[in-house]
Amino acid sequence: METDPRHAQCLVAVGELGRVVLIRTDKGGPEAGCSTAGFTEGCVPGPVVCSCVDKNHLYYSTGSDLLVLDLIKESSESEGQERDEETSRKLAAALQCPTSLNVCRVIDLTEPTCSTTGEIQLLGLSVRGQLQRITLPLGREGRVPSTQMGRSVKDLLSAIGDVCERSSVLKSSIKSKNQILRHLNQVLNITFLLTASTNTEEHLPLQEKPIRCHAMARWSRLLQKDSLNLTCVLVNSSPYVLEQGWTLSITVFPLSYSLSAGGESSSTSFSFPLSNVHPGQTLEVSLPLAGADDTSFPVTVNCSLTFSLTNLLGEEDLVSFTGLQSCCISLPLNTLIVDWLHTLQAYSSTASHKKSTSQCDVTTDAIQAFLKSHQIRCSAGGERVSKQEKEQYSASVRVSSELLKDTLELKKSDLDQPESKTVPQIVCISLLDWLLSEGHGGVETEYQKDKIAASSSVVYAQAPNGDTVKVTVKEVNVGEQTLGKQESLPTVEVRVESTSLAAVCGLHHAVLSRVQTLLQRAPERAASTKRIQSLGLRQALQRAERLLQQIQQKQISEAFGLGVSTKQMTLSLLSVYQELRENPLPII
């Protein structure tokens, strides 16, 4: 600030946050005989974007308004030799009351100039890059000319337009942030809901989970190739909407692998983006599970919900949040199991019906049989190989009839019909129907009852590898003669027969898995057949000891190099497996 046209006697320093410091020279006392630097500090309403001074005024912009501060009183008071606390207090009060010029969005100012008529002119640069000439009359307290009034109105209208534009931008930003917060709140609610259900998964059945998946396996034929497809159904029983941004992830992982696949087991993942699955609604997705001649069963199907945090932000916001591009939330739902029983294609309950298939299948089977016979004739020892191919493998599981009556929920009216079917027949047919139609592991099948005789407990079906399997359910009595008494236990035997060892092993495992679910339903009651079980257990232990000795002898012979080949060892282990599966202990 200049108080003399020759040189400046005051320096004004303005900070970005509104701190103002006035530095000037004060004359010393009579003893000092020299001048000292005096500092006056205060604050103005900030922030300060830009500023400039003239002889008596400080002009500064806060971005939203252009203000002017009158410093002439300070200059007149500072000419004295002493300045007391009252002078500083008056200056601080003056700094808090600047005068508004009603001009907004100014980011730079030039040095003020004075026209010949005494008007003060400022040249400012707006945020939009426009130059604005701001003219102030010499006597601001006096009457404003009409031309200046027009300029003021124009400036006010421009300021109003700028404020409206800023208000619109702020409203849009607030609306976008509210939408993000609402979406994030939904994501957190679903996360807490599924996390709580996962922690109590042991006591929460699949049907009661708020968000769950179940599936149906069905065979289809396309371009003369059979394939097993899985239709997975997502059920939303929660009170929340699965909005856009959620993804249903399904991973198929075989528990075993086929030799044709190179001895490796690999998983396959599928992703299905969701779009507003409301409470009570379902979503169906289909995926290929296996092709013909595939024996890598059972397979586990892991279902989960994933949400990427990048869906909460727009493309512009993602630039400042580069770390969120790889962040996502993964919530496991449930695991489904597809076993060999799910993959069977039942077509008959009698062997004669098996021959009445379509002409296309008969032709295909004839061609395959011709190729196999040709390979057998060309290979050495073809007669022995042909004999081995026709060998039948079998495995069985025995379950107590009382256990089946209690767990299969058979109605008493169904059991009291001796004129049509016997009670054992009803139990056997019900068990066979339950094995083929029950949605075990959360997976259902297209079990066609019209192809199975209503009074039959025998089913012929085609395995995934194309071989024919036979499933027989019949009643057998397990007992022994002890101390002159005949102890017997009515049991139901499930027998699986096929020329394919892989099919027999896979179906035997599937039947045992389903029987385990029956045991979980079984009511607690005292066992009345301890004697039979003890005798059966003794026989099983004796048989196991004999088979163990047989295996050890084979291993010793191989260790000493007595001519035991790998093929002979494989056949020996196969015979052990068959003997263990031939006479199983009954499950009571």
From TrEMBL:
Transmembrane portions of the chain: none
Pfam family, one: FANCAA
Coiled-coil features, chain-numbered ranges: none
Gene Ontology biological-process annotations: interstrand cross-link repair
GO cellular component terms, A-Z: Fanconi anaemia nuclear complex; nucleoplasm
PANTHER family assigned to the protein according to its UniProt record, in alphabetical order: FANCONI ANEMIA CORE COMPLEX-ASSOCIATED PROTEIN 100
Stated name of the protein: Fanconi anemia core complex-associated protein 100
Upper lineage: Eukaryota, Metazoa, Chordata, Craniata, Vertebrata
